[in-house]
Amino acid sequence: MRLPLLALLARGPAHGYELKQDLEQVLGAAYPQPNVGQIYVTLGRLEKTGLIEGEAIEQSSRPNKKVYHLTEAGHEALRAWFEETADEPRVRDEFFMKLALAPQTGLADQISLINRQRRQYLNTMRQLSKLAAAEDRDNRISHLLIEGAMLHLQADLDWLERCQEELEELQ
Amino acid sequence: MSESDAPLLRAEGLVKTHHGEGAPAHAVRGVDLRVRRGEFVAVTGPSGAGKSTLLHLLGGLQRPDEGSIRLDGERADGWSEARWAVERRRRIGIVFQFFNLVSDLSVADNVELPALLAGVPPKKARVARRELLAELGLEGKERSMPGELSGGEQQRVALARALVNHPPLLLADEPAGSLDSRGTREVMRLLSRFHQRGQTILLVTHDARLASAADRVISFFDGRIADDATLDAGPPPRRAGASGVLELRD
Questions:
Q1: ipTM for the whole complex
Q2: Between residues 9 and 68 of chain A, which touch chain B (CB distance below 8 Å)?
Q3: Which of A110, A106, A88 is nearest to A97 (CA)?
Q4: Which domain of life is it from (chain B) (predicted)?
Q5: Distance (Å) from the C-alpha of residue B212 to the closest C-alpha of chain A?
Q6: How far does the CA of residue A25 sit from the closest CA of chain B (Å)?
Q7: In this structure, what are the phi and psi dihedrals at residue B173, rounded to the nearest 5 degrees?
Q8: In which band, very low, low, confident or very high, does the pLDDT at B236 lie, cut at 50, 70 and 90?
Q9: Which residue of chain B is at minimal alpha-carbon distance from A127?
Q10: What pLDDT is recorded for position B235?
């Protein structure tokens, strides 16, 4: 959450609740809604490390609100973030371990493991399709997020298919 | 069992072996399958698993070496070619990967033809065609020739043609197989919409996204059913599932 908040602040000063709304607006309804408490905690940490600075604004009928802005160090951190490429997604480590180790335990059958895992992926795929159908058509970023998740899942399903082809031959 | 209790489609012990050059290919090796009225079933699996052959057997486009097929409780595997051709207009609609439209007929004629062949009066066929094309977002394309349309549009015409006689069963063989991502979503949306109105659908696809529109997914491997799973209708569990996949971590 740290760097996305810095990125939102690059546009100009804002307070915690505004940042939550901005994040929701950009990412769309499909993205799990950020918890406002988590945002305040993260802002506190960013301030402690000197990446942002807060300024208390008095409000007549409510408690003071704190408006944050990026510091020079914050700008630098953000630039470095955009400079770096992101890590590749990981293979499903845990499922892979189960598949690799099942035969010697005598406790689980590889094909049943694959079938069960496929059911879960298909159910998730279905939920993603429903999310995509419910999401605002004009929110491209949100649709790209859902499509990205679906394509990853599709790749995992293809891989399960390969596992099944290979391992069924042995049985 | 009375007719109305019978599954719309029931296959038992289906076997089909292709004898071409080289070793015989065992495309379908003993398949039992029931599809109830109103169900949307997807058959997925790697290419060469025999899933298209299975669909061809169920639509009478190929004959099984062994096994039986019942449509609405009625034994169908003994039907003649001519009878299958009639039933493919009346009781079974089929869409294919490459649309298979008649290239020198207009969009309107492609859709009306099966209705006219089934003995529907021309006026009624025209009304049915108009309704379906409107429903599928193809108004204004009536006079176009199939070659002038995009792949996605051609597949929608093919869908209209398959449904013009209100067949109880729709078979779809890789209907998005030659479409881009947008075309795939469009086909998915339309199949879901017809399903919600009660259309029974059997879909063959290697695309898990398309398959997930169905409420039952059969995994087909090496000519056999490896798994037959009913997908959940309920909301996603917390954390796992879709929101777990979507959560972007810092």
A1: 0.80
A2: 30-32
A3: A110
A4: Bacteria
A5: 5
A6: 16
A7: -105, 105
A8: low
A9: B242
A10: 55
